[in-house]
Amino acid sequence: MSNDAGDIERANHRFRQVVEAAPNAMVMVDKSGAIEMVNTQTEKIFGYSRAELLGQTIDILLPERFRHQHPDHRASFFSDLSPRAMGAGRDLYGRRKDGSEFPVEIGLNPIETEDGIKVLSAITDISARKRMEERFRQVVEAAPNAMVMVDKSGTIEMVNTQAENIFGYSRAELLGNSVDMLLPARFSHQHPQHRASFFSDLAPRAMGAGRDLFGRRKDGSEFPVEVGLNPIETEDGTKVLSAITDISARIKASEHLAEHRDELERSNKELATFAYVASHDLKSPLRGIFQISQWIEEDLNNGDTAAIPSHMNMLRGRLRRMENLLDDLLAYSRAGRLEGGMSQVDLGFLAKSIFEMQAPPEGFSLVVADDLPTLNTLATPLEQVLRNLFTNAIKHHDHQGGCIKLESTLTNKNYYEFSVSDDGPGIPPEYHERVFIMFQTLRPRDEVEGSGMGLALVKKIVETYGGSIRIESDGMRGTSIRFTWPIKIEGRVTNASSS
Amino acid sequence: MQVLHKQNYKEVTLFIVDDDDIDAIALERALRKLRLLNSVHRARDGKEALDLLRSGAIPAPYIILLDLNMPRMNGLEFLQALRADPMLTHSVVFVLTTSKSDEDLVSAYRKHVAGYVLKQHMDRDFLEVIGLIEHYWRLVELPVTKE
């Protein structure tokens, strides 16, 4: 038997050496909780010497607030013996000799010995890890954009205050739920696939290259976002930390910028046209006047007065033309700016009074449709449009008399469409675009006096309020000018194009 | 002044394409002043000019004096159509315009005009221009359209 006793002695010694060599603190207690064995690591992390610990109850290593529950926990462990981690789901703390506490992780192993069952606990000081975790949490919290960490299944594990702010959910509503709740419903069916493909090829990257991404707030509203994805290795597997930026403001700003740029381009183009036109169309009557005055002088010197009255006539004609050009140019530059106020307009009545004001030559009549609306609108620009269209219909008519019709041809929820039709000579299709250009006339001004501004002005006004205008005519007989006019005028549309 | 023998060459027709009556009258007055008896034809825009040329109403040889800013078909569009028409592509064209725009100038020369003359000098009348063109047609052999 002495041989046996020697074997046991040797086994005990080996066991002690193993325990001593363990990298973490090892403490063996008996059923009553009395400490039977500790290693050097235990002395180090708890600050007690071996002598101070042996024979003491294990409670000495616990913060006082946990001591009263400990006998129960111990009893339940002894009633169901199996190796396991202590305190699943709870944070565990150890207590040093000086009374300070530190977070620990504890593994429990039941050991059968000759004097009954003991528990060998392996205790790890996890202060460093906890500090890292805390630091990570603080970094995430301090991030300027919303941060959401999800696991492989898409369950939200961590969010910061920014995430609460931009999505309108509280932290408690987010944690443990699927990240799909932050996506518009129409995208959520694709999200699991995208997530799977991200997890299969882990690398930090921006989400949804080339696509527009949207987030969904708690109230269901959507907003454009930019999302950066970062894989993070943690103790419980790979997570994805996404940084989400609400880019509504940026998008709005760039839209604003684009609007300004379009407006600037438009007005630059207008200015260029104006400069071109001013150098030609405004100058040519001036040159004419200069020339005629020379002819008159020459004719007078030659004693040839026969042509003088006709030259004088021509001269006055050029002066009038110059004046008209300047007036119309001014009207054009002001189009859409002098708009007066909103008023109730009976369109049929307005049209008739405009027509009468123009004192049309005998033989011309205006027919207004019965179904013309009465609308609350900016009367001044609408009047300008109709006046110019009526003037054109009368001025360019090739017969002694004619009939002009004003009709309401179509209405949708935003616009009326009106048409002004005449039975004049028509406009051949190849000129339908040209006639809207500033100073373009289809006949020489010496035949039909006109600035060529009428339709350009009409187009500018119509487009200022978001409408459009087109010509219907086969060039053989009759012209219909159709334009849309907003049912509710909201204001000027800044990106009205000019040609 | 040198004495010209008319039988030696065919009298050149001047074809004015200009919507402005005053410019047309001024050109004719300049011709009269220089005692030139060339026949003068006129169109008021590019389209009318093309129609007249194609109908043979303008007797060859002719020189076209072309304004740029005109109704319906402007001068540059007229040049485009002219150069694309195999019967008319060799026509000699002088541009007479108020447009100082570089774009117009370059576009016109790209369409092979014989000259680009600004009519902005109101005091110089058309005498200079007609003088230049007169020298031109006396010295230069003009293409004659074959039937």
Layout: helices, strands, pairs:
The complex is a heterodimer of chains A (499) and B (147).
Chain A: H1 2-21, E1 25-29, E2 35-38, H2 40-46, H3 50-53, H4 64-67, H5 70-79, E3 84-85, E4 92-95, E5 101-113, E6 116-125, H6 127-142, E7 146-150, E8 156-159, H7 161-167, H8 171-174, H9 185-188, H10 191-200, E9 205-206, E10 213-216, E11 222-234, E12 237-246, H11 248-280, H12 283-301, H13 308-334, E13 342-346, H14 347-357, E14 364-368, E15 374-378, H15 379-395, E16 402-411, E17 415-422, H16 454-464, E18 469-472, E19 479-486
Parallel strand pairs in A: 14-16
Antiparallel strand pairs in A: 1-2, 1-6, 3-5, 4-5, 5-6, 7-8, 7-12, 9-11, 10-11, 11-12, 13-15, 16-17, 17-19, 18-19
Chain B: E1 13-17, H1 21-33, E2 40-43, H2 46-54, E3 62-66, H3 75-84, E4 92-97, H4 102-110, E5 115-118, H5 127-139
Parallel strand pairs in B: 1-2, 1-3, 3-4, 4-5
Organism (chain A): mine drainage metagenome
Domain PAS (chain A): 11-64, 132-184
EC number (chain A): 2.7.13.3
Question: Any overview of this molecule?
Answer:
- The complex is a heterodimer of chains A (499) and B (147).
- Chain A has three domains: 2-125, Beta-Lactamase (2-Layer Sandwich), CATH 3.30.450; 130-246, PAS domain (Beta-Lactamase, 2-Layer Sandwich); 338-499, Histidine kinase-like ATPase, C-terminal domain (Heat Shock Protein 90, 2-Layer Sandwich).
- Chain A is 41% helix and 24% strand.
- Chain A is built from 16 helices and 19 strands.
- In chain A, strands 1, 2, 3, 4, 5 and 6 form a six-stranded antiparallel β-sheet that branches.
- In chain A, strand 5 (101-113) and strand 6 (116-125) form a beta hairpin.
- The termini of chain A are far apart.
- In chain A, 25% of the residues are buried.
- With 147 residues, chain B is α/β, with parallel strands linked by helices.
- Chain B contains five helices and five strands; from the N terminus they run E-H-E-H-E-H-E-H-E-H.
- The longest helix of chain B has 13 residues, at 21-33.
- Chains A and B meet through helix 11 and helix 12 of A and helix 1 of B.
- Chain B: Residues 13-134 form the Response regulatory domain.
- Chain B: One of its GO terms (biological process) is phosphorelay signal transduction system.
- Chain B: This is Response regulator rcp1.
